Amino acid sequence: MNLHLLYIDPGTGSALFSILIGAAATLYFVFRAVIIKLKVVLSGDRAAVSSVSYPYAIYNEGKQYWNVFKPVLDEFESRGIQVLYLTSVSGDPVFEAGYKHIKCEYIGEGNRAFARLNILSADILLMTTPGLDVYQLKKSKMVKHYAHILHSPADATTYRLFGIDYFDSILLTGDYQAKDIKTLETMRGLPQKRLVTVGCTYLDVANEKIRSIAKEEEHSFTVLVSPSWGPSAILSRFGEKLLDPLVKTGWRIIVRPHPQSKKSENAMLEKLTERYKDAANLEWDYERENIYSLAKSDIMISDFSGIIYDYMFLFDKPVMYVLQGFDMRPYDADDLGENAMEELWQFKTLKETCVELKEEHFDSIAQTIQKMTASSALEAARLEAKKTAWAYQGEAGKRVVDFMMEIVNNV
Fold this sequence. Notes:
The chain has two domains: 54-200 and 393-410, 3-Layer(aba) Sandwich (Rossmann fold), CATH 3.40.50; 216-389, Rossmann fold (3-Layer(aba) Sandwich). It is 41% helix and 13% strand. It contains 16 helices and 13 strands. Strand 1, helix 2 (66-79) and strand 2 (83-87) form a beta-alpha-beta unit. The radius of gyration is 23 Å and the shape is globular.
């Protein structure tokens, strides 16, 4: 009897392995979702299994997103329209807001929240949370339309892979964001989403608030270090290599980690906190709102974080950015081609509006910062970027509600 060995070439083997891993992950999360739903039902949590359907629903996953939704809730309240507001923030400001038409419900965090959302009944659900229908956060069969509202005026394709693929609509801060979303839809064979420019709700809120911020009478020169999160972000990538020379300048240094860092890379933060516990001129900012640190600082050092645009658009102050070693692969933009880094609006804008800081300049960072002078060209570029990425200033809440009402009326 002849024995024949089955040969699988490396490419096919790799593909089969990926399929098996994907299938296993899908089965795992489906099984977990079923278990969680059973626990909810058996626990008698009536709110979680309610069959009541709402025309309008909103989900807030974190305290930092309150200002994204506040103008929308204010607009619904002023129109006397009832909205279901689900939150994973136990101390959400909504509970103290005194709304009469906003039904508020705390649904917990993580899987508990996903279990509630997975059985929600609504005509439209608005959220900032990406990754819909990718892993744990599955679409509810009783939600007719899923809308994602961008919480940064940066490129929409800088989400983690597949972050916004399965929404029915994306609410943009500026028209420019639509182009790359459409390109990915074509490349991935996705249904076309509704892409509607509404402006930026949280920038509208911040723009009002900064008028009441008292200016510090006297303060030392202040550098704000405010990065994104993940292996390409400056805190996780450079850490003490950047912070050590900054502390040595004697200037006031404010470090404001990305909110996701506390969840995803807390060990790194604890290590740095311990290292600088005796540095009198370094302080950490974990406040919900960023505008107070933005107002105190004279210059920002960041990477690819959307907070750069908050700083430029609200305060028109100089920014230095570090992009060395940035890895595009975890992001949707990586599928746009080899030249995505050069072609994406936000990276082109960084070069036009900010000054690049490279690792080899860290040791002489004081001199590098001192050499920065006021530039009319940078100021003009910042103004142009603001016009492009922050449309309909002051009108975002109204425009979001107009859109949601249009969807409900046509469902």
